[in-house]
Design goal:
This protein is an alpha+beta fold. The protein is 25% helix and 29% strand. It contains 8 helices and 16 strands.
Length: 285
């Protein structure tokens, strides 16, 4: 599974619920069906992730302090890579917990890989890569990193590797460079072993057809989610028993008792993407 957590915030389908008084004064807005709540949703996100079916989960835009609660609730090993806007995290983290919508992404960000039984991380396999050096970011760009780890189980003789990234937003050519760099490096690190490269690419196959064709032709990375999707799980050396597809919207909606009734909270502005891959026959790599 891959999911961009939107810094742990909710994203109701009704734009009218995004109000100035909610953003400034943490006033919950209600349209009779959905709420927009400006408060920490750590429990709601961790419960949703823990209850989902996955062996490995790739997360982006994760508030850095959430790593251990996510791992504990899911019974998983966790690997965190800090990304952008963490310079003032002792201060912005406190503000983010108090008023998530006001501080937004300035709370600080991270990418997280979760691995849970029957799979386990390969000892010493965790690595990370800076995708956009400072000279490429200039004055406006944010630091983007890829994280990478091997996983294994008793049923396989060799490992499978997974890589997680969140590419730059709003700059298609820069995101294409970052994704190419991530693919080149992940393939080199994985060697001949199977690989899943996933995350929020901020790239649509419909808008960048040449790049996705190159990923398949040059690296064997196949099965993007959809022509207009930006969250993907590409795989090499694995067959899709269930191709990547997004959760339906109700899957990330949480019911909340509210006054004399029930309202719904929609988690994140991204849908989780899930896929099932069938491993090839065991081999020694």
């Amino acid at each position: 599974m891959t999911w961009n957590l939107f810094h742990g915030r909710d994203f109701p389908p009704d734009p009218a619920l995004f109000t100035l008084r909610s953003r400034l004064w943490r006033h919950a807005e209600d349209n009779g069906v959905h709420l927009q709540v400006n408060r920490s949703l750590l429990r709601q996100f961790t419960d949703t992730i823990a209850q989902a079916r996955w062996d490995t989960c790739l997360l982006q835009e994760v508030p850095p302090p959430w790593t251990q609660p996510l791992a504990a609730r899911s019974g998983a090993h966790a690997y965190r890579t800090l990304t952008s806007r963490n310079q003032l995290r002792p201060l912005t983290g406190v503000l983010g917990r108090f008023n998530p919508d006001l501080i937004g992404s300035w709370e600080g960000g991270s990418n997280v890989i979760l691995v849970r039984p029957p799979w386990r991380p390969v000892p010493g396999s965790f690595r990370s890569l800076l995708l956009n050096p400072l000279r490429e970011r200039g004055l406006r760009g944010e630091r983007r990193r890829m994280s990478f780890v091997g996983i294994e189980s008793d049923s396989r003789a060799g490992p499978i590797f997974v890589a997680n990234l969140h590419a730059s937003a709003g700059e298609r050519l820069q995101a294409e460079r970052e994704l190419t760099r991530a693919a080149e490096t992940a393939i080199a690190w994985a060697g001949a072993a199977p690989l899943v490269l996933g995350g929020d690419f901020n790239l649509r196959p419909r808008s960048s057809p040449a790049l996705f064709q190159e990923l398949q032709r040059r690296f064997g990375l196949c099965w993007p989610t959809a022509p207009d999707g930006i969250d993907h799980l590409l795989a090499r050396g694995l067959a899709p028993a269930q191709p990547p597809e997004p959760w339906p919207a109700p899957g990330r909606e949480i019911e909340l008792p509210w006054r004399e009734g029930v309202r719904r909270i929609k988690l994140s502005d991204h849908a989780p993407i899930v896929a099932t891959f069938a491993a090839p026959p065991p081999m020694l790599y």
